[in-house]
Hints:
By secondary structure, chain A is of the alpha/beta class. Chain A has 14 helices and eleven strands.
Amino acid sequence: MVHPLREKAAVSGIGETAYTRGTHKSALALQLEASLAAIADAGLSPRDIDGVVPYFPGGGIAEDFIANLGLPDLKLSLFVPMGGATCVAAIQSAAMAVASGVCNHVLIAVGRTGYSGARVSTRLQQFPQFALAAEFEAPIGIFAPAQLYAPGARRHMELYGTTERHFAEIAVVTRQHAILNGNVVMNKPLTVEEHHASRMISDPFRLFDCSLESDGGAAIIVSRSDQARDLKKPLITIMGVAEGHPESPASIAQRPDLLEFGLAKSAPRAYEMAGVGPKDIDVAEIYDCFTFTVINQLELLGFCKKGEGGPFIMDGRIALGGELPINTHGGLLSQGHVVGLNHVIELTRQLRREAGKAQVKDAEVGLVTGYGDMGDGSIAILRRAA
Amino acid sequence: MSTATTPLAPERPLPTPTRESQPHWDGMREGRFLLQHCSACGKVRHYPRPVCPHCFSMESEFKEAPTGGAIHTWTVCHHPFNFFFKATAPYIVALVDMDAGVRVNAPLRGVTEADIKIGQRVKLGFEPVNKEVTLPFFVAE
Lengths: 386, 141
């Protein structure tokens, strides 16, 4: 039986601000600027938006959207508190809302002053999901995601022989892709040697294994497919979408297998809903808070076996022109950090064939992941239906 | 007394015990490694929480547990992310599979980075940081 949500909703609008290091704008202003761009891209009026999922914590809440956009009748206000998995998981919530008829057009928006405002180790203290980390990890010197995720990367290296050369490949290829995109923070080439020479942050993560702290906003609109069909842009449907939560969700330390997290549960569900598998994917935008995180997710997504992610990504396979181009916009490592909503925007552009110099030829089906909150994992599989 | 130009020493982040975790921290202060066990099914759980996820009992007791374990994985923190740890970086933090059946994350002392291996035996020590709080660390067993 076909899943009742398959292709019932579509990504109808996308919008983003400039990605910078330094801004005078507030996170709310960036979030609203991107929202207006996404609404215009869809050919809608702000008055058409009847559901909002603002990224939380940070940026605005539903009340801000009503007050700024003059929303006449907001029918749904949601937070999806899943850290880096939030934006893609929010697509599932939005798809359910429009498919069920509760809403017509749901806005998902992020605004962030990660460079000019509070930095990551401070921001995390706002998250209720980090209470255990604050009690048991911060006192012994573990504060930031780099420190929380590094032990998993180290274990992968020890068990499977993954090396920093593999990590460098992710950083270098992602940078090559970023250079093709006009709106990025990092626009100079990066070599393997420069990666290896960058300072150690939390072993095995070096500076160029870590995503950027940047300022910017991003937004998308999720609409019911029959309504999106009549809008301005090619119809990009949501074939499959899912969120997954790992064992020991608020403590990586207590998780039985550090390398098995939410995506291990959500990926099979999303493939089943979509009716496709890894072999059908033309382009993938993989949440890249760290280089290693991409390798780990490619394994959980079934592109290769567990432990084989390092060799899998070598020899041009993940670069444009390769078998599985990934992070064709430059990702969180080189474009900017808007909690992965830029990955959803890039996938939509690829399927619309609007990706410019980074266009994957004839891209029909692609996937995007979110990863965060110490191991939540979300995935959406989109298709060009126009 | 000191003048206004004396810089403030950065404060060490300390745990804020909850009603569930208080007995664990009380034990640490006494130099005892106390873990929460379900009173109904007997299974151990860490970090402390109100309900046993195996049998859903809300009755539990804290029992002293063995302090030995084997290294599961580790990281070496170079960038401190916090002013207090600026003075101690780089420092090794080991994630250890305790013989008691839970994991503990704590600084590893007296071992050089190049010598660390998965499965290496360590034991937990107790380091008082003030009158109320004692934190764990590891040394080679």
